[in-house]
Specification:
By secondary structure, this protein is of the alpha/beta class. The protein has 2 domains: about 240 residues, Glycogen Phosphorylase B (Rossmann fold, 3-Layer(aba) Sandwich), CATH 3.40.50.2000; about 180 residues, 3-Layer(aba) Sandwich (Rossmann fold), CATH 3.40.50. The protein is about 40% helix and about 20% strand. It has a 9-stranded mixed β-sheet with strand order 3-4-5-2-1-6-7-11-12, with helices on both faces. Helix 5 crosses helix 6, helix 6 crosses helix 9 and helix 14 packs across helix 19. The longest helix is centred in the N-terminal third of the chain and has 24 residues.
Length: about 500
């Protein structure tokens, strides 16, 4: 009986040894660590493709998508649910929650709708009293209250939806209150305590000035925040956001330097200097899928940097559309701009009639000050076979002008970033720009085979005219001009590189 028991024990020992040996011989696989994505929330007053009036919308529509593509962040964007948002988008929105927002003595309803667009979670803040208005989205008598509500509602929505962002990136004065509320009044809440903030300045000229009587009654700011918010005996929302945010960015490196100067800073130069340690400039990009001459359905013939032949057909089609003589050898100089002085329109006005003596054609598309609108219509009447002025906002025509023109003129007095010069370059239309802001960072003067455009420094009409004539003379040398066009079209203005710079900023 004892022998039988011993046999069983020996068998069990052999089995154990075999199992151990099998485990020892089994290859050791490395442990797979799943890296948790971080989260960033963008808060802005507009975003393409839903609602757009300027460059901010392009950034809100393109940068988040590029960050998602890099795969390191989950991205959410908050914008108001304006009545102007097209029904084709609104019918896809999903209602997710509602609550009431306490704004000073007010208690206002807020609905939140969600739409996942190109990998980005877009959240729309709904309140018909503030955002269901006809016509313009800015310039209402109560804009301060509207965007204070929006800013506070975004923070309440972040909490209600348990988004838990690592970074909140606010844009311009309309969302500056979100920085103030978060850092000054929500910071005790564990959901907000670890959030870092970035405030992006797209245009420092518009700062959100209000009388101090609005401090508690309108905005409901805590009294302890007075030193941050007060500026020259007024409320200055942008100043407060600059002071209270963890990082401040602008939309180009040159503009980040320029706003340290009183000429560009509109009174905030000392505040910028005080906070320069957290200031950086990152050049905007453009959406290369949206602005693509090889796929653009707005133009008559697609083309690319490798085969630019279709551009000649686009030029003839533009001349025919505008009633200009169809001459392939005459350069078309174009402007697509707001007709206001800081866009350099005053320079153009001083020398355009001299320029019209050249063998050129000139096209301007835009709206703005009535005096400039009337003047360009007057010049078009003087030179009907050389000049066309279309006083309108027309996206379809703008694409045709980008594709059909040879030279794009952008002589801005100040331009934080500018996107038109990038779009023009993408379409092989060579830019003539003044060396300011993002124009200086994106367009480099052509010389000895290098460079993608023509530039001038001083804000002087005759400097502009001289460089414009240089561009026209270069156009006459087809071999050299082909090289300039190639350089322009192969310049990298995509968001891919710039998005990584924003991620570096967030990591810092």
């Amino acid at each position: 009986m004892a022998k039988k028991t011993q046999t069983v024990v020996n068998a069990e020992e052999k089995q154990v040894k075999a199992t151990v040996k099998q485990k020892e011989n089994k290859p050791h696989l490395p442990k797979v660590t799943v890296k948790k994505k971080k989260s960033v929330v963008f808060i802005g007053s507009e975003s393409a493709p839903f609602i757009a009036t300027g460059g901010l919308a392009d950034v809100m529509g393109s940068l988040p998508k590029a960050i998602v593509a890099n795969g390191n962040y989950d991205v959410s964007c908050f914008i108001p649910m304006y009545s102007q948002i097209k029904q084709e988008y609104r019918e896809k929105f999903e209602f997710v929650t509602s609550f009431y927002v306490n704004l000073a003595w007010r208690k206002q309803y807020c609905g939140v709708f969600k739409y996942v667009y190109e990998g980005v979670n877009y959240f729309f803040i709904d309140n018909e009293y503030y955002f269901a208005r006809e016509g313009k989205i800015y310039g209402h008598y109560d804009d301060g209250e509207r965007f204070a509500f929006f800013s506070k509602a975004c923070l309440d929505a972040i909490s209600a939806l348990n988004i838990n962002p690592d970074i909140v990136n606010c844009n311009d004065w309309q969302t500056a209150p979100a920085i103030i509320y978060l850092k000054g009044m929500y910071y005790g809440d564990y959901k907000f305590k670890k959030i870092k903030t970035v405030f992006t300045i797209h245009n420092i000229e518009y700062q959100g000035w209000y009388g101090m009587n609005c401090y508690e009654d309108l905005f409901g700011f805590d009294g302890s925040l007075y030193s941050y918010i007060e500026f020259k005996d007024c409320i200055n929302l942008m100043k407060a956001a600059i002071e209270m945010s963890d990082k401040v960015s602008t939309v180009s490196p040159t503009y980040a330097e320029e706003i340290k100067n009183s000429f560009y800073a509109h009174g905030l130069e000392d505040i910028i200097a005080k906070n320069s340690y957290k200031l950086c400039g990152i050049l905007n990009g453009i959406d290369y899928d949206y602005y693509n001459p090889s796929t653009d359905t707005h133009i008559i013939k697609n083309y690319s940097a490798d085969d630019v032949s279709g551009k000649a057909e686009c030029k003839l089609a533009l001349q025919k559309l505008l009633g200009l003589p169809e001459k392939s050898d005459v350069p078309i100089v174009s402007m697509i701009t707001r007709l206001v002085s800081h866009k350099g329109v005053d320079l153009v006005k001083q020398v355009i009639e001299q320029f019209m003596t050249e063998d050129v054609q000139f096209v301007v598309l835009g709206t703005g000050d009535a005096s400039y609108e009337d003047y360009f219509k007057y010049v078009a009447g003087l030179y009907p076979n050389k000049c066309k002025a279309v006083i309108a906002f027309n996206q379809d025509l703008s694409r045709k002008i980008y594709a059909g023109s040879d030279i794009f003129l952008m002589p801005s007095k100040m331009e934080p970033c500018g996107l038109s010069q990038m779009i023009a370059s993408r379409y092989g239309t060579v830019s003539v720009v003044r060396e300011t802001g993002g124009l200086n960072d994106s367009i480099k003067a052509y010389y000895d085979g290098q460079g993608n455009g023509f530039t001038f420094r001083d804000y002087n009409p005759y400097d502009m005219l001289y460089v414009l004539r240089s561009a026209v003379n270069t156009y006459k040398n087809s071999k050299v001009w082909a090289n300039v066009v190639k350089n322009a079209m192969t310049s990298d203005f995509s968001w891919d590189y710039q998005a990584k710079k924003y991620e570096d900023l967030y990591e810092n």
